[in-house]
Amino acid sequence: MRKTHEACAYVIFGSTSNLSRIKLIPALYRLEAAGKLLSKCRILATGRRPWDRERWLEEVRGMLEAALGDALDPAVQQRFEQRLDYFRGDITNPRMYDELQTYIDENPELPANIAFYLSIRPAEFGVVSENLSRTGLLTEERGWRRVVIEKPFGYDLESAQALQQRLTHHLEERQIYRIDHYLGKETVRNVLVFRFANVMLEPLWNRNYIDHVQITHSETVGVGTRAPYYDGAGALRDMIQSHLLQLLTLVAMEPPASMEAESLRDEKVKVLKSVRPIPPSAVHSQAFRAQYGPGKVDGHKIKGYLEEEGVPPDSVTETYAALKLYIDNWRWRGVPFYLRTGKRMAENVSNIMIRFRQPPTQLFRDTQIQKMERNWLVLGIQPCECLRIQLTAKEPGLEMETHQVSLDAGYRSQNDVYTDAYEGLLLDIMEGDRSLFLRYDEVEYAWRIVDPILRTWSVERDYITSYPAGSWGPEESRRLFDREIDAWRHSSDPGG
Fold first, then answer.
1. 494 pLDDT band (50/70/90 cuts)?
2. Is the peptide bond before 152 cis (omega within 30 degrees of 0)?
3. Domain co-membership, 125 together with 240
4. DSSP3 helix / strand / coil % (the chain, rounded to 5)
């Protein structure tokens, strides 16, 4: 059951950004359609463009038509548009914030509670928060004030620390909502329920029964128009430092004292603090990077990363990154966690794959069974939202032979209502539920894990392995596995 919430205003900085167009505005519309926005809720867009409210409504109609198509309900759209307004201003101009404060103070329709959504470049986070504070817009005299920040939170450990110092000069930690949309996905939210609401799993969830864990996020798309940003970031920063390490904490954490935000985040931080540090001498044995070259995706010829517009011809930025991590605590000591992500891969897939240990084979020593397959437990995040357990069973017939069977629990039926990750997270912000938002110490310890790798890679600029676009990445990354019999599992399907 969700918490109750009070009416609030969403003030969106960067309202014409791709994030706002593709995610924020459609998600707020869906909350309207679901009846989750209270009657007094308002949405105020800010931007430099010389628009008025009517021009902004035209823009929003285009956003919603592009995102929803035939699913757009005219009655819902009309209600939604009544909440919208537009405020013109340049976020780099301090006078804009004085005018914004006057607008808010003199507008009786705006609720006292305000969430400022910073859909802007990370370099501007500090400027905006400083000016909001200077004009008193972060003061909580009449209602709460919350600031929502999109990733990336820093470029490395040092920049993350500097950004945090600047933000906390104007904001309390409880006011900062570091959003990771990956944590809002339904199946990711379900990981905690799956783990802690099913008593049969807990006795098996440890080093005595689990051989290793694989966490994969692969994409068929390339860098597209994001090349200038992506070439300065790379796959390790873009996906592993944030999304995949968060998935690792959900898989590996101890049961929290309660599902309250701080209890949950305390346990996630304990996992990150327990990850064995990777010294420079171990980077090559525990990390691998590569870059996609020319290939084929869905039968279409694809150019390589170095041929993409905006990518320097001598770039060694990784579009594929894989890590092997160890968690040095009682539950997971000695169990490797393998994380990988890549662009221009064979499929769009996000999965958590848990491989159990080899069963004793002496029971079958006088039978035709030559090799016992190990069991898998698969948590499919996208595109297949599922829970799947792969077991060994006897084949029908007179001989003692085995095959793999799968116990499937499709997470979503055809009649289920689809919700985007942002819908739940935007509602969490209104309710003040910070469970799925990152606390600063989570961010810092995640950077501590990847920083040694980034430093080593930054000085190795002579060569980077390549893999064909449309493949499952470089075969050489298999060297991360502790044993030769292990390999990456690509699909949630049986035998995948």
1. low
2. yes
3. no
4. 40, 20, 40
- The answer to whether position 158 is within a domain reads no
- Picking from 359, 343, 86, the residue whose alpha carbon sits closest to that of residue 208 is 359
Per residue in 287-299, pLDDT (tens digit) is 999 999 999 887 8
pLDDT digits (tens, 9 = 90+) for 8-60: 999 999 888 888 888 999 999 999 999 999 989 999 999 999 889 999 999 99
Assess if residue 169 is contained within a domain. Answer: no
Whether 284 is a known active-site residue: answer: no
Residue 413 in tokens: 């039926």
Which residue of the set 217, 243, 284, 403 is catalytic? Answer: 243
Report the C-alpha gap between 467 and 294 in whole angstroms. Answer: 8
Q: Provide the domain limits for residue 352.
A: 183-419+439-480
Which residue bears the tokens 């939604």? 80
User: Cα(383)–Cα(64) distance, rounded to whole angstroms?
Assistant: 23
Q: Which of 133, 150, 167 is the last residue of a domain?
A: 150
Spatial CA neighbour of 42 closest among 145, 115, 98, 103? 115
Is 307 inside any structural domain? Answer: yes
408 & 260 share domain: yes
